[in-house]
Amino acid sequence: MRIVLVGPPGAGKGTQAAFLAKNLSIPHISTGDLFRANISQGTELGKSAKSYMDAGELVPDSVTIGMAKDRMEQPDAANGFLLDGFPRNLSQAEALDEILKAAGLSLDAVLDLEVEEDEVVKRIAGRRTCRNDSAHVFHVTYAPPKTADVCDHCGGELYQRGDDSEATVRNRLAVYHAETEPIIDYYKAQGLVSTIPALGEVADVTRRAMDALKK
């Protein structure tokens, strides 16, 4: 299957993508991983992306599309893939259609993880990260530390990262609504979208997504 996973920041796309890709035996292709891999390997696309990033500029769609195209053409993606974070806007969605069409392929489904905006803010703004080890992450509501503001693992101070602040989260949501949300209507016109309620236990959300794919 060839699937696109969409949803606002904080909807749990990364978590669901990993579970779905495993269940379907297809690779999980995320934009973040693509950038990191290309930059660390020193590919031409990676060098181009890094030059824009180092200058504090947005990486052009052409570079992102090139990375995604290269990854989708790898042998492990021959029988399908799950795209997470790509396409991010209408021009990328149109480019993806062209790439697949040229290969005689098409998308099978688009899964839209649906979460209310206030819940997104609550999920992200409630995160607290250990200053000693950023892998130690807690949540004031869903996974609180035993002692407020103290890491259970090493006793380090817990703090709220700048990109987890409510103002930053709401700005990210505004960008999502303006740039990414339009691709949902684009794919709805193709009859590809299944809306998945993303509240509840991770396993329950995965089950809803798998049920939608079976249909």
UniProtKB/TrEMBL annotation:
Its EC number is 2.7.4.3. It catalyses: AMP + ATP = 2 ADP. The keyword Flavoprotein does not apply. It is found in: Cytoplasm. Transmembrane segments: none annotated. AMP binds at residues 31, 36, 57-59, 85-88, 92, 161, 172. The keyword ATP-binding applies. Residues 1-215 form the Guanylate kinase-like domain. It comes from the Bacteria. This is Adenylate kinase. It comes from Streptomyces cirratus.
